[in-house]
Amino acid sequence: xxxxxxxxxxxxxxxxxxxxxxxxxxxxxxxxxxxxxxxxxxxxxxxxxxxxxxxxxxxxxxxxxxxxxxxxxxxxxxxxxxxxxxxxxxxxxxxxxxxxxxxxxxxxxxxxxxxxxxxxxxxxxxxxxxxxxxxxxxxxxxxxxxxxxxxxxxxxxxxxxxxxxxxxxxxxxxxxxxxxxxxxxxxxxxxxxxxxxxxxxxxxxxxxxxxxxxxxxxxxxxxxxxxxxx
Length: 230
Description:
By secondary structure, this protein is an all-alpha fold. The protein has 2 domains: 1-58, Arc Repressor Mutant, subunit A (Orthogonal Bundle); 61-213, Tetracycline Repressor, domain 2, CATH 1.10.357.10. It has 11 helices and no strands. The protein has helices at 2-33, 40-46, 51-57, 61-84, 90-107, 109-123, 129-155, 164-179, 183-191, 196-211, 222-228. The longest helix is centred in the N-terminal third of the chain and has 32 residues, at 2-33.
């Protein structure tokens, strides 16, 4: 029985190693040549497998795209969890998570170029089973951000007049827009003497000031004022 279990464990490890090798190979080819330009046959050749064997692990390129995405997201999630576990205020945790996020983007530029170029098309395939795991990870990270913001509201370092989930969603959408900033916007910023790095730095400053706990005398709700005029 022990020998059978050991053999099973070894086979599972080998299967996982081969799966990761396939993801590594696909990542290398997607990053260097672009998602659309790479075939499953080329990925199989890169990892020295038969095409049929490759399909035992991944049914198509979409599955590999989402496998790469999920692996990167889980690494980023680990970084976020480290921030959350620190004994600092909710505001400081949120600030640190934002900083670490953009550092991660900087360290994984090829990955984010792929995501921005091909992600929108692939994420529209709602019936894709592989995408569901990615969406669950997105949801987990969103709720993690929500909990940090709620913590800041409770410790008095973050404004409490907006629902924390709504605030986390706004911040997430803004971050994604900046990560996948249209090249025309980058050109306009550069023409104005504003580098992308400076733009990101000032975005973090801007969003930080936006969520800071405001003095009681400044807590008039501008949003309601605008709505009331229409």
